[in-house]
Amino acid sequence: MLNTLKQVFLPSFCAACQTESTDSVCKTCCLKILRITNIDPTHLSFGKYEGILKDLIHQFKFENRYGLSKTFSTFLIPLIPKNTDCFIPVPLHLQRLKSRKYNQMVLVLNEMSQKTKIPMHIDVLKKHVPTHPQQILSRTQRLKNLNNVFHVEKKEKIKNKNILLLDDVISTGTTTQKCKTQLLKSGANSVTILTIAKN
Ligand SMILES: [Zn+2]
């Protein structure tokens, strides 16, 4: 009943093609997303960073389209490894957090955590110093820029745990790799990387 009323009074639109849809992304558009088919068990991604998926991620990150966190969670849940003990997001530094207002991946993780009952820890992996956006740096600069940037607090929460580390897009993998190393050094049993898209 409530759902019917919602549909009558609050018509919603597909974020990708703008046609009327009860889902934030319609089924036709979901099917158009180019999926990642070569499965690397240590790094999982839902789709290629292009076309519809790229557009959706941009809307989510820069146009405050919060509703997409639900859609992204339904994309990612089937990819969660069976042995996962907890979710951890790749952190944004406080300054970046202020300019973007929030770490969007936490919204996605929150949806995933509610649906799967797997806990998420947002107070474990922290970032020390502001870094330049990775895209404008060379590979050497990038590695230098990230040395000792990430650190782990509340190590007891991850001791011997199998962690799923989440980020929106992976391109070179430098950032996620640094996070993974830090988590393993701090006592995690395993770290699998999961991203919405792969560049
Ligand atoms: Zn659509």
Please characterize this protein's 3D structure:
38% of the residues lie in helices and 17% in strands. It is α/β, with parallel strands linked by helices. The protein has a domain of 135 residues: Rossmann fold, CATH 3.40.50. The strands form two sheets. Strands 1-6-5-2 form a four-stranded parallel beta sheet. Strand 5, helix 8 and strand 6 form a beta-alpha-beta unit. Helix 4 packs across helix 6. The longest helix is centred in the middle third of the chain and has 13 residues. The mean pLDDT is 87.
The CATH level-2 architecture of the domain at 36-46 and 75-198 is identified as 3-Layer(aba) Sandwich
What's the quaternary structure here?
single chain
CATH fold descriptor of the domain at 36-46 and 75-198? Rossmann fold
How much beta, percentage-wise? 15-25%
Task: Describe the SSE topology.
Blueprint: H1 2-9, H2 27-32, E1 43-48, H3 51-62, H4 68-76, E2 86-89, H5 94-100, H6 104-116, E3 125-127, H7 139-146, E4 150-152, E5 162-170, H8 174-185, E6 190-198
Helix pairs in contact: 4-6
Zinc ion (ZN) binds at residues 14, 16-17, 19, 26, 28-29.
Features of the shown structure:
two-stranded antiparallel ribbon; Rossmann fold; four-stranded parallel β-sheet; alpha/beta; 199 residues; single chain; globular; binds zinc ion
Question: What's the quick description here?
Answer:
With 199 residues, the protein is of the alpha/beta class.
